[in-house]
Amino acid sequence: MVSTQRRPSEHCLLAVFVLLLSGSSLAASPAARYLSVSLDRVISSKAQLNCYDPDTTIPAASSGNRLAIHPACSGGSEKAWRQRDILVHDNARLSTVLQRSTSSVITPVSPAPASAPAEAPSATIPDRPGTYLDTLEFVVIVGFGTPAQSSAIIFDTGSDVSWIQCQPCTGHCYQQHDPLFDPSKSSTYSVVPCGTPACSVAGGKCNGTTCLYTVHYGDGSSTSGALSQETLTFTSSRTFSGFTFGCGTTNLGDFGEVDGLLGLGRGHFSLPSQTTSSFGGSFSYCLPSFNTTPGYLTIGSTPVTGKVQYTAMIKKPAYPSFYFVELVSINIGGYVLPVPPTVFTSTGTLLDSGTILTYIPMKAYTLLRDRFKFTMKGNKPAPAFDILDTCYDFSGQSAIFIPAVSLIFSDGGVFDLNFYGILIFPDDTQPAIGCLAFVGNPEGAPLSIIGNTQQRSTEVIYDVGAERIGFVPFSC
Questions:
Q1: Which of 129, 120, 226, 135 is nearest to 176 (CA)?
Q2: Distance CA 246, CA 287 (A)
Q3: Which residues, 6 or more positions from 268, have their beta carbon under 8 angstroms from its beta carbon?
Q4: Which of 79, 122, 241, 474 is spaced 20 to 30 Å from 281 by Cα?
Q5: What pLDDT score does 200 carry?
Q6: Which residues pair with 35 in a beta bridge?
Q7: SS3 category, 90
Q8: Rounded CA separation 456/475 (Å)
Q9: Are 292 and 47 spatial neighbours (Cβ–Cβ below 8 Å)?
Q10: What is the predicted pLDDT for the residue at 303?
Q11: Neighbours of 185 (CB within 10 A)
């Protein structure tokens, strides 16, 4: 359990430092807040996550809304983080974001407003890190077809079109963990006809009477095939009929061993947009703190049990598929960084499930890094790890203490980060080395990004109808 503590031995030193280096307006509290976790807990969290058996029937929990994930018989292809370059991944992700800011084969048209049911149902399924499927993103298991064929797919707040690899693979299919989806074994599969409104949104390309789709990503990977409709199964009691998705028969690039992707963006074909009339259009997720435990993805809204902080969901015309928030400052250990809000607001801040780290303007990052180093005096510095330039070796310590970090938004909303949202342990071969999980953007960077590392253990609520995003810390 991560705890919030103060370090008495540093109380006076920090208070004096704040008074000396900042005016009274910057001294947010007389004593810094700290988060701590035992080193044993850090090391145990690096254990390999149990994989799953897609051929095993997945029962619903007692509520009828939650799925259990069974351990798998295969060992998967778990790789150490050091073998999957975080920088390469995040650079490719940024390229995808920028690519979609100017053009897209599938135009992210917003759907027509749909009335949500008075009491919208919801479905909650487990999510987990995708490292066992050779991806740094998070995955869920859903069923396509009748009867349902299980698929382990990435869920992505920056994508609109959902897709899976399909038989017959007439172009190219990469090796995935599960059998390819076979439309011929489903009684509810159909293709979207050419000339329909849905086909027009997808670009209007056809092969005979079958509408086609194509999606390109920033790293050069792509997927294409038949735009299709199918029954999507979340749990044994929660399904959605007529779900429009891509049945991919030519899939090129590095997708790890996942079966496809679930789009949670703001465009016409995203899951939230398609399910507005059935599930209310809202969704939430909690990315787990540890690789040994699952989190969850909820389609629809459920009662919030913890303390929630909401902030406005910002629309950026240049990035119509993405979710933005208005970050204006950062609090570290009770000290608010002395930067004007325009440092952040001049470009905007993207909240993203597919980027690993958090990228902020260099001016703000330099102050954050220096303040972090000051509060970490007494810990053994370690060499930089790739783009992570502030690292420490905690070997031999019983516990790790770090300053708490909160993201502050223009409307007063506050996002308190979990221990693992501040410090990342990127090398499985050296599990006691942790690094500050923030990166400074170079001058002229088009936007800031809050990545999925910072979102870990927090339920992030996308209340699309009310155009707000909520944060419930310590939810998984």
A1: 135
A2: 26
A3: 108, 109, 110, 111, 160, 201
A4: 474
A5: 95
A6: 4, 402
A7: helix
A8: 9
A9: yes
A10: 79
A11: 12
CA 198 to chain centre: 27
Residue with tokens 């086609």: 212
CA dist list (Å): 241 to 12, 71, 125, 244, 277: 62, 29, 18, 9, 12
- The single-letter code of the amino acid at 90 is D
Distance CA(59)–CA(148), nearest Å, equals 13
Helix H or strand E encompassing 449: strand 448-450
Bridge partners of residue 191, in order along the sequence:
228
Per-residue CA distances from 212 to 223, 231, 253, 387 (Å) = 11, 19, 19, 40
Three-class SS state of 300: coil
> 3-state DSSP call for residue 476?
coil
DSSP characters for 154-184? Answer: EEETT----EEEBSS-SSB----SSPPB-GG
Q: Which amino acid is at 460?
A: V
Alpha helices in 64-103 (DSSP H): 86-102
Is the CB of residue 433 less than 8 Å from the CB of residue 382?
yes
Dig out the tokens for 108 from the structure. Answer: 């992210």
> Residue 433 in contact with residue 385, Cβ under 8 Å?
yes
Q: H-helix or E-strand containing 19? A: helix 8-21
3-state DSSP call for residue 135?
coil
| CB burial readout 128-146, b (16+ within 10 A) else e | bbbbbbbbbbbbbbbbbbb
| Residue 40: Cβ within 10 Å count | 10
Query: Using alpha carbons only, how large is the chain's radius of gyration in Å?
Result: 22
The token pair that represents 118 in the structure block:
């008075």
Catalytic residues: 156, 352
- DSSP tag of 121: -
Tokens 């303390």 -> residue? 307
Beta bridge partners of 382: 391
Within 8 A by CB and 6+ apart from 199, the residues are 192, 193, 206, 211, 227
User: What's 66's DSSP letter?
Assistant: B
**Which segments in the chain show pLDDT lower than 50?**
1-32, 48-83, 103-116, 118
Instruction: For residues 462 and 238, give the distance between their C-alpha atoms in angstroms, rounded to a whole number.
Output: 20
Can you read off the two tokens belonging to residue 183? 């439309």
DSSP for 411-429? TS-EEEPPGGGTEE---TT
CB neighbours of residue 276 within 10 Å:
20
* Predicted local confidence at residue 30, as pLDDT: 37
Instruction: Return the amino acid letter for 456.
Output: R
| Token output for 68 | 């259990």
In angstroms, rounded to a whole number, what is the distance separating the alpha carbons of residues 292 and 297?
17
Bridge partners of 138, per DSSP, are 129
- Whole-angstrom Cα distance, residue 189 to residue 146? 8
Q: Name the helix (H) or strand (E) containing 262.
A: strand 260-263
**Residue 248 to residue 289: CA distance in whole angstroms:** 32
Overall pTM > 0.70: yes
